[in-house]
Amino acid sequence: MTDKDRSAFIPPCIPTLVDKPPEGDRWSHEIKYDGYRTQIHLIGRNAYGYTRNGHDWSNKYGSVLVAARETIRCDAILDGEMVVQDETGRSDFKKLATAIRWENASLLFYAFDLLWVDGNDLYKVRCEERRSRLEILLGPNRPDTPIQFSQSFEGSGAEFFGAVERMGLEGIVSKRRASIYRSGPSKDWLKTKAYMTGEFVVIGYERKRGDAPSLLLAQETDSKLRYVGRAIPAIPQAQRDELWKAMEFLHTSHFATTIGAGNKAAVPVQPVLKVMAKHLRGEEKLRHATVVEILAP
Predict the structure, then answer these.
(1) Catalytic site residue 124?
(2) CA atoms of 12 and 288, how far apart (whole Å)
(3) Which of 134, 160, 193 is the last residue of a domain?
(4) How far apart, in whole angstroms, are the C-alpha atoms of residue 145 and residue 71?
(5) Are 193 and 279 spatial neighbours (Cβ–Cβ below 8 Å)?
(6) pTM (predicted TM-score)
(7) 235: domain range?
(8) Neighbours of 141 (CB within 10 A)
(9) Which of the following is catalytic: 32, 60, 175, 193?
(10) Do 234 and 265 have their domain in common?
């Protein structure tokens, strides 16, 4: 039996997105880190790192896994987030892929759950107890190690979210303190995400019977366009009427950039109109996005 056979990958618990955080002393709250969900397995003298879908990325996370094995003296499975931080200490998703490939030493792993220790499953142990055992296992956070414990906040979820939003972070995750660990979507873990507003170029649209009309948006990067998703116009009716007239006038034969296979009914337009869109912070593609302003040409 190999080391890997002794502790199989555990499909992660996935928090449910909500509009506002829960309140009450049954919940604790943590910062939502903007990175890659990662599961670290420490077995014998070896350490392994897995993505949220169970792919073995041990060769990509070498420096973090070495530190994890040196820090934790027992066999264990840790659930957490792999991130890279900017100069202000905020996680920077855009730099993560580059860091994994070329700057492995800049990676940080924020551990927020302990699923297995020395052959014993902890799934049915209360969340607050699992986290307490994890904190003891890791010891105090130190700036000289890439293994960090994700601290929790006990108190008002709304107040904590407000503070996180003012800091420009992605959002928070609230966890029911008495909950067990369940793989898959969970309402015992709730995520509240902050919104941000950005400028985008309209490259197409879709108006289909029975569905809300949407604009296909792209972002300008290094003098080229990158498709980032759709947004629903949330502007006054008079402006919407003018928008659709502009879309018809700007019809063209092809899209200004690749948009993916799921947009077969979309109509391409010349990439000249710019808009301001409100969307969830920390997502590579637009989510829950609405156009809030048409910018003057």
Answers:
(1) no
(2) 24
(3) 193
(4) 9
(5) no
(6) 0.77
(7) 195-294
(8) 13
(9) 32
(10) yes
